[in-house]
Amino acid sequence: GITSILFNGAKAELVFQKYVSVDIKRCFPGDALQRLPSTSPAYAAMDRRTKLRKWSVI
Fold first, then answer.
1. Distance from C-alpha of 42 to C-alpha of 54, rounded to nearest angstrom
2. CA–CA distance, 8 with 43 (Å, rounded to integer)
3. 48 pLDDT exceeds 90?
4. How far is CA 32 from CA 20, 25, 55, 57, in A?
5. How many CA atoms lie within 13 A of 39 on its CB side?
6. Averaged confidence pLDDT in the chain
7. Cα(44)–Cα(58) distance, rounded to whole angstroms?
8. Are the C-beta atoms of residues 5 and 28 closer than 8 Å to each other?
9. Which of 37, 49, 56, 57 is deepest in the core (most CB within 10 A)?
10. Helices in 1-58 by DSSP H: which ranges?
11. Number of C-beta neighbours around residue 14 at 10 A
């Protein structure tokens, strides 16, 4: 089954929080829902190496 949900940036997490049923969100412990930095090249606040390190959790 699904054990975690990872978000590609803050916008993806916000859309999930807005549109996904509260019942589904309750099925996952707090650390199972995790925001990762956006992979968009437009998001330049974080360098590629740092993004790669954060994404390596998966």
1. 17
2. 11
3. no
4. 15, 10, 14, 12
5. 7
6. 87
7. 22
8. yes
9. 37
10. 10-19, 22-26, 48-55
11. 12
Write down the pLDDT at residue 14.
92
- pTM of the complete model beyond 0.85: no
CB 39 within 8 A of CB 51: yes
The radius of gyration of the chain from alpha carbons, rounded to an integer in Å, stands at 13
Closest by CA to 37, choosing from 15, 3, 14, 7, is 7
Per-residue pLDDT tens digits for 7-26? 999 999 999 988 987 878 78
- Backbone conformation region of residue 56, classed left if phi is above 0, alpha if psi is from -120 to 50, else beta: alpha
CA dist 28 and 31 (Å) reads 8
**Cβ partners under 8 Å of residue 40, min gap 6:** 9
